């Protein structure tokens, strides 16, 4: 029996409880004015931050609108695409895909246990969750390029260093996003399985995995796709792939070439997206 | 079998969901718990299994104090206790049969749980349990595509598959039609009589409690207000459990 | 290192070398172009010492320098500034040769503007920028010798901060610099003399619409660098092979207009080192 | 009454139904051999892909293990960090944060309705979902840098172009991840609200939002953090921020400076993570 | 009020959850639907509201064909029909009171839904509905922290707040103790008698059906096997509904 207002209040009014009084009591309990102040403090802070950001970023919507018509001209420069280097691009795409597959694959292997340890609703060791979250922040905070460079001194220049860099950096993002999926699962079925005396791992395999799998697959493929797209930075260890080709075209202002690469990347992203959709649908 | 001493639980300060409950359950008996909606029946069962942490009080199961034992010991104790939850709590994306097997995971190697490749002997056991609750027909249907009563019976079948010594059933026949309800309660009764399994069962229908149980506990607003052998249960006892509740309308 | 102990030290090291790994930086903007242009030379070099070659093309000096330092790369073609940075990172690196472009081992860094700009020299440009509206200056990537280091050093020498004097931007590619000036995206941009010729040859720009408002002292061309602990004998063999590269072979092995190598011990890069020290990026 | 096996089968066996027969029937129905073939096809494909990738990425675990001991030396070069340029870095961080705030903020505004239209379980117009997914792929497939360059031709060099680039690119990722969160929500409460005759938007506001909010906030802050971290690329439009400083330190092989920047980024990532955790906890 | 013509629904090919159902509901009456677990009662109610798409057959509500009307018309019709779902389907993260207001969202501007700033008049209505199901005490408790019976009553209160002309209640008293169950059914009965609201109610307890309803429909394995005024309902009718079901055990 949980009473947000005192019992006497309910009894006093008997058959016609004073609903207004109840509402008022509840509002008082929630601390009306204080809460309002609290909220408006955050609101004002957010708005101030937004305005300051807009100033720093030199947002100028007027100019933006006025110059919108020039868009067409810019786009027209992309055409016609230049398909002459297509074989090279395909090779670059495959290299990028391969690095992303190895990197993301390793990241998945490490991220699953990490996510299990970090997700607040299923971690078996609460005290470990916080330091592990720190580790994840570390992995996320250090760029792929820096990891890659670091691994150059171990495995030398080349795609392997790139793949290792991808793996380490991605692990941080992946475990975080995985943990988020796991935390959003309904707790009852998991609890029901744990109530049978089953241990964490088995409960996870039996009750958590089937529910979470679509989400986990979605995230894994998203990060894979992301790694493919963002292979630019791996150029510094000699593992450029398609992202680097894109950057080069951009720097050379070679728009027809850029257009071809964009089309290829788009095709790849769409394929991965379709693949992800197909997979998740099959799980239903 | 199970001894409860001064069990107290409050979710919100000053309001007790359970207040100072003490009782002892004798093995091989069928105990029914009656009480108005919101009186704390579910909380009590959950506290017994340590799914909800009691504030104070002790719970002994087979001579082991469940409040203070290690995680491993608790897991071992839990394998001996099966729970049929009020909201069924099935794994939605698994079939009825697979859900039944959820009761015997500790016996299985991890890879079988991961790949859902369950051994045929276990599958047969699951099917047998489903048959006892008349669900063979939907054994391979996903749990979230079952009707309410079917889900409830799958939850019961899961408890059967667990082969526990104690079954805690939280309103196990709430969503069942009268005939099926009797089938299920007869089943629980026979488990108790023939296999010596102890049963604690929350019920709402007093007739069913008097018909099937050995002993009736009455809870009212978190307090134990009644504890009688079923054959002594009278209409005045009925009033004790539900009356004051009605008075507050 | 004393030459007397060389042989006894080197033989096991030489034996442990099973292949020669070569690295080359972003000399040509297109990655595949780089590989195509440099692989023949490296293959020929490796053949000289009877070892198989493995060539990696990276788009920055960073990776190459790290690989040299950790001894996972044997020989690299670096830029002058990249060489200085790498040697700063690992003093045991050694330059063994400097490449010749049209028979000259040097080139120039330039600052250019549109031909119709109202200033003709850097001084005038600075003066104009300090008085009226700021001129837009674009320097290249910080890893670039001619596009970033040398102009930066020049400003430092004049006790100016380009970020204050100009509307400053950095990080552009060499290929884009001249185009940016011509298309009026910036007023002044840095580049090196050879690149302007190449762009003109390819028909990408019309050089007559540009003017040079500043030119540097001659800068040493790119060095060939070997890692520390590199077996002395092989190093000498490589150096000899490079320096003695016949011009007709150079035509087939090297990119267009490169004619061979002169020997180097790193001392010809002192001016670059000074520039680095001047801008405070070397210590 | 759904019978995976024929009714006669159940009746025939009457009180002792042949459980083995039922199992066998079910296995037949699932198409045992066929399914096995199907599965093993995918399995073989996956393994082949993995091996091919490992080859392309020149994975060489032996070398990796042998050279692991050199790690310490590499790390030692990062110390001591060089704090002399701290004020510059703080400015750069603020610039990056501002760009990311504006960019991510705009992306959120656009991504929410897009996600609503794209999430399969709540979209009101099924036929629109597929083309919109294509649009999202497009936005995701085109890199921040390219968008930024594109906007340079509209609003000129500077942080505004960078913010616009961030906004456009992030919209794609955000709407996709949002949609994934929305798709993983239990459908019953939403359905219950729609059954009262309420329209999509109100059902969303009432039944979807409270459940999805923690997930949405987590993703938004993750992408904000991501945008902060990845501001490297904005250097090319003259909106460098901390990412560009990092790149410069890398290019100049200035490790103590790099270390300081890494520490700053780490602090920032941890702060955002803590902020996210605090927010999500308050929602519970 | 509502006319059902040849309604057929099958989830799996060859197995009908509903088969060729036809009946007409007269306004201002209380109809009870009886049937064994899994016989198709929930499916029927869901089909009426078009939450499940029927395979064939027509459903008319107030002269409007719900199968073929536009989305807008369907929404308008739905505002007139309230549903109490078997699994309650409350929004877990909203309070009991807020959940009640879920019934009258169409009247509210969007920003109020977004910011959860509901007008006081509506809050009072919600509280009044909660009071009618004896839940004032937990009005400000989050829905996922309510007991099973409390959740069920919140779902009923939501239907009350909707002020619909027709209430479809799917086993609305399954999780309630007998006293509270009578309170709720009395409430529904009085809505029917005094406010002229039409009620269709799935029930499992035959006594409750005979006590409160005007008319009883019996469903067995998806077919309508019984349609009698309540005062004519006899024990043999009871057998018709549940018998064959038992025969198949
Ligand atoms: N997680 C929780 N947080 C706060 N209060 C809770 C929580 N769970 C239950 N309660 C409150 O505790 C009291 C007892 O709940 P409990 O679920 O034990 O009742 P019950 O006897 O099972 O009722 P029912 O027959 O309706 O299922 C109720 O008033 C309920 O609102
Ligand atoms: N989504 C679904 N997919 C497949 N089969 C379903 C689905 N929903 C229900 N069924 C099947 O349809 C039949 C009728 O289900 P329904 O939920 O209508 O039964 P019910 O009469 O409400 O039963 P109960 O009293 O147990 O709630 C059952 O056999 C059930 O398994
Ligand atoms: Mg309960
Ligand atoms: Mg039902």
From TrEMBL, chains A, D:
Record Gene3D superfamilies: MetI-like
ABC transmembrane type-1 domain residues: 93-276
CDD domains to which the protein is assigned, alphabetical: TM_PBP2
Subcellular location: Cell membrane
Topology in membrane: Multi-pass membrane protein
A family per Pfam: BPD_transp_1
Superkingdom, taxonomy of origin: Bacteria
SUPFAM superfamilies named in the record: MetI-like
PROSITE patterns xrefs: ABC_TM1 (PS50928)
InterPro entries tied to this protein: MetI-like, MetI-like_sf, PhnE/PtxC
Protein family according to the UniProt entry: Belongs to the binding-protein-dependent transport system permease family.
Designated name of the protein: Phosphonate ABC transporter, permease protein PhnE
Gene that specifies this protein: phnE
UniProtKB/TrEMBL annotation, chains B, E:
Gene3D superfamilies per UniProt: P-loop containing nucleotide triphosphate hydrolases (3.40.50.300)
Keywords tagged on the record: ATP-binding, Cell membrane, Membrane, Nucleotide-binding, Phosphonate transport, Translocase, Transport
Residues making up the signal peptide according to the UniProt record: none
Ranges where the ABC transporter domain occurs: 2-246
SMART domains registered for this protein in UniProt: AAA
GO molecular function: ATP binding
Entry protein name: Phosphonate ABC transporter ATP-binding protein
Taxonomy of the source species: Bacteria, Bacillati, Cyanobacteriota, Cyanophyceae, Oscillatoriophycideae
Protein's organism: Gloeocapsopsis crepidinum LEGE 06123
Alphabetized InterPro entries for the sequence: AAA+_ATPase (IPR003593), ABC_transporter-like_ATP-bd (IPR003439), ABC_transporter-like_CS (IPR017871), ABC_transpr_PhnC (IPR012693), MetN_ABC_transporter-like (IPR050086), P-loop_NTPase (IPR027417)
CDD domains assigned to the protein according to its UniProt record, in alphabetical order: ABC_PhnC_transporter
């Amino acid at each position: 029996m949980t009473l947000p207002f005192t019992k006497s209040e309910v009894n006093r009014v008997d058959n016609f409880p004073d609903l207004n009084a109840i509402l008022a009591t509840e509002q008082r309990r929630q601390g009306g004015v204080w809460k309002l102040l609290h909220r408006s403090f955050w609101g004002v802070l957010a708005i101030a931050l937004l305005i300051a950001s807009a100033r720093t970023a030199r947002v100028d919507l007027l100019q933006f609108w006025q110059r919108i018509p020039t868009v067409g001209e810019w786009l027209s420069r992309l055409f016609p695409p230049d398909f002459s280097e297509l074989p090279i691009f395909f090779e670059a795409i495959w290299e990028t895909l391969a690095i992303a597959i190895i990197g993301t694959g390793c990241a998945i292997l490490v991220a699953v246990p990490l996510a299990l340890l970090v997700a607040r609703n299923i971690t078996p060791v609460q005290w470990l969750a916080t330091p592990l979250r720190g580790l994840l922040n570390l992995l996320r905070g250090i760029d792929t390029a820096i990891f890659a460079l670091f691994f150059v001194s171990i495995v030398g220049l080349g795609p392997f260093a790139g793949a290792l860099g991808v793996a380490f950096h991605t692990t941080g993002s992946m475990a975080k996003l995985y943990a988020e999926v796991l935390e959003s699962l309904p707790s009852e079925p998991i609890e029901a399985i744990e109530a049978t005396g089953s241990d964490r791992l088995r409960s996870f395999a039996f009750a958590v995995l089937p529910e979470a799998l679509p989400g986990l697959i979605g995230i894994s493929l998203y990060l894979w796709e992301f790694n493919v797209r963002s292979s630019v930075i791996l150029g510094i260890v000699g593992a450029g792939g398609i992202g680097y080709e894109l950057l080069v075209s951009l720097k050379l202002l070679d728009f027809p070439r850029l257009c071809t690469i964009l089309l290829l990347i788009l095709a790849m992203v769409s394929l991965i997206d379709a693949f992800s959709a197909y997979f998740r649908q099959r799980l239903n | 079998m199970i001894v409860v001493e001064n069990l107290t639980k409050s979710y919100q300060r000053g309001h007790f969901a359970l207040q100072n409950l003490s009782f002892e359950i004798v093995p091989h008996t069928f105990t029914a718990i009656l009480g108005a909606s919101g009186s704390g029946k579910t909380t009590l069962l959950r506290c017994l299994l340590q799914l909800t942490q009691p504030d104070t009080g002790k719970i002994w199961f087979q001579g082991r104090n469940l409040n203070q034992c290690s995680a491993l010991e608790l897991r071992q104790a839990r394998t001996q206790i099966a729970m049929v939850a009020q909201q069924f709590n099935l794994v939605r994306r698994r079939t009825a049969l697979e859900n039944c097997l959820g009761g015997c995971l500790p016996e299985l190697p991890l890879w079988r749980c991961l790949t859902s490749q369950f051994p045929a002997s276990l599958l047969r056991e699951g099917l047998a349990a489903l048959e006892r609750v008349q669900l063979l027909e939907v054994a391979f249907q996903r749990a979230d595509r079952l009707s309410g009563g079917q889900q409830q019976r799958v939850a019961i079948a899961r408890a059967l598959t667990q082969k526990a010594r104690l079954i805690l059933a939280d309103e196990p026949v709430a969503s069942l039609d009268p005939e099926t309800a009797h089938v299920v309660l007869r089943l629980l009764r026979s488990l108790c009589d023939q296999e010596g399994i102890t049963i604690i069962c929350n019920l709402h229908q007093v007739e069913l409690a008097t018909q099937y149980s050995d002993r009736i506990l009455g809870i009212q607003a978190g307090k134990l207000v009644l504890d009688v052998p079923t054959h002594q249960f009278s209409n005045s006892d009925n009033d004790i459990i539900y009356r004051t509740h009605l008075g507050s309308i | 290192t004393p030459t007397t102990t060389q042989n006894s030290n080197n033989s096991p090291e030489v034996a442990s070398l099973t292949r020669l790994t070569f690295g080359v930086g972003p000399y040509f903007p297109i990655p595949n172009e780089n590989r195509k242009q440099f692989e023949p030379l490296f293959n020929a070099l490796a053949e000289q010492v009877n070892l198989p070659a493995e060539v990696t093309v990276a788009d920055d000096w960073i990776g190459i320098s790290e690989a040299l330092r950790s001894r996972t790369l044997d020989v690299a073609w670096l830029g002058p500034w990249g060489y200085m940075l790498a040697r700063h990172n690992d003093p045991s690196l050694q330059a063994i040769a400097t490449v010749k472009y049209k028979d000259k081992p040097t080139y120039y860094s330039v600052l250019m503007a549109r031909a119709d700009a109202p200033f003709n020299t850097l001084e005038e440009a600075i003066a104009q920028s300090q008085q009226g509206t700021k001129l837009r200056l674009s320097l290249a990537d910080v890893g670039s010798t001619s596009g970033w280091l040398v102009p930066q050093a020049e400003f430092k020498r004049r006790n100016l901060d380009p970020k204050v004097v100009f509307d400053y931007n950095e990080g552009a590619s060499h290929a884009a610099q001249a185009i940016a000036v011509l298309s009026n995206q910036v007023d002044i941009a840095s580049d090196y003399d050879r690149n302007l010729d190449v762009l003109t040859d390819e028909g990408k720009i019309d050089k007559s619409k540009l003017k040079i408002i500043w030119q540097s002292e001659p800068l040493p061309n790119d060095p060939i660098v070997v890692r520390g602990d590199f077996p002395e004998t092989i190093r000498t063999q490589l150096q000899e092979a490079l320096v003695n590269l016949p011009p007709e072979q150079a035509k087939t092995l090297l990119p267009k207009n490169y004619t061979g190598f002169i020997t180097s011990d790193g001392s010809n890069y002192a001016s670059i080192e000074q520039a680095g020290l001047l801008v405070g990026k070397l210590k």
